[in-house]
Design goal:
The protein contains 3 helices and no strands. The termini are far apart. The chain has one domain (4-106). It is mainly α and 109 residues long.
Length: 109
C-alpha cells in the first residue's frame, strides 16, 4: 500500500467478508427449513432468516464498495484522505447499524 489511508479499506473488506459468511449461514438455515429440516424454526423463523439474509446482502455489498473506494481514491488522487478517523467512524457506524438491524429482526421490532 502506497498510502496510510488505504489501510482503512482492509477493515471494510474484513467486515464485508464477515457479513458475507453470515449471509451464507442464514441462506443455509433457510435452505434446510425449505427442505423440511427446520430444527431451528423455534429459534429463527423463516421470515426472520429471509429478512436478515437479504439485508446482509445489501450491507456487505455496501461495505465492499466503500472499501474499494477507500483503496482506489487515494491512489488515483495521489493524496491521503482528509480524515482517516472519519473513515473509521463510518465503518463503526455501518457495523453498528447492521448489528442493530439484525437484533431488531430477531426481536420482531
Amino acid at each position: 500500500m502506497k498510502y496510510k489511508s488505504q489501510k482503512v479499506a482492509y477493515w471494510f473488506f474484513a467486515l464485508s467478508m464477515l457479513l458475507f459468511v453470515l449471509q451464507l449461514v442464514y441462506g443455509f438455515i433457510m435452505g434446510f427449513a425449505h427442505a423440511g429440516f427446520d430444527g431451528l424454526h423455534e429459534i429463527i423463523p423463516f421470515n426472520t432468516a429471509k429478512a436478515v439474509h437479504l439485508n446482509l446482502l445489501v450491507v456487505w455489498l455496501l461495505s465492499g464498495f466503500m472499501g474499494a473506494a477507500y483503496y482506489i481514491i487515494p491512489e488515483e488522487a495521489q493524496h491521503e484522505l482528509v480524515s482517516v478517523k472519519l473513515a473509521y467512524a463510518q465503518l463503526i457506524a455501518l457495523a453498528l447499524t447492521g448489528v442493530a438491524a439484525i437484533i431488531g429482526f430477531h426481536l420482531n421490532i
